[in-house]
Amino acid sequence: MLDLQTTSGKIHKTEQEWRELLTPEQFHILRGKGTEPAFTGALHQNHQDGTYCCAGCGAELFTSDKKFDSGSGWPSFWLPISEDVIEAHEDSSYGMRRIEVTCARCGGHLGHVFRDGPRPTGLRYCINSASLEFDKEPK
């Protein structure tokens, strides 16, 4: 179990504590708002049944039945587990207007959401594999 400091359900850690908890790639993405190269993430081609959780705090974020192949090179989902597990923020970095998605519990950067996804939501949550951990459903 992770040893996390929480206040009102939110997790607060120092930069050093995050560095000790996460791999360098996870730290770069979750805490530094980085991204992994397309088609390289460990969970991009994952087709197993289970739950995708935040690699920073373990919060359950997405389920495999809401995952789809968007062709973008990152795991893509059309709906999170619930609206309160993620937060959306306007992101105008790199000269683009996008909506950043972060974990509502720890604030870790997950990826972005776009309005070019499948029905019924029309949304595509484009998420970095390194920001996720996968919990396989038992058979």
Automatic annotation (TrEMBL):
Location of the MsrB domain: 15-137
Catalytic residues, chain numbering: C126
Cofactor field: Zn(2+)
GO biological process: protein repair; response to oxidative stress
Protein name: Peptide methionine sulfoxide reductase MsrB
Stored InterPro entries: Met_Sox_Rdtase_MsrB, Met_Sox_Rdtase_MsrB_dom, Mss4-like_sf
NCBIfam families according to UniProt: peptide-methionine (R)-S-oxide reductase MsrB
Cofactor note: Binds 1 zinc ion per subunit. The zinc ion is important for the structural integrity of the protein.
EC number of this enzyme: 1.8.4.12
Keywords: Metal-binding, Oxidoreductase, Zinc
GO molecular function terms attached to this record: peptide-methionine (R)-S-oxide reductase activity; zinc ion binding
Catalytic activity entry: L-methionyl-[protein] + [thioredoxin]-disulfide + H2O = L-methionyl-(R)-S-oxide-[protein] + [thioredoxin]-dithiol
Binding site for Zn(2+): C54, C57, C103, C106
A single Gene Ontology CC term: cytoplasm
Family: Belongs to the MsrB Met sulfoxide reductase family.
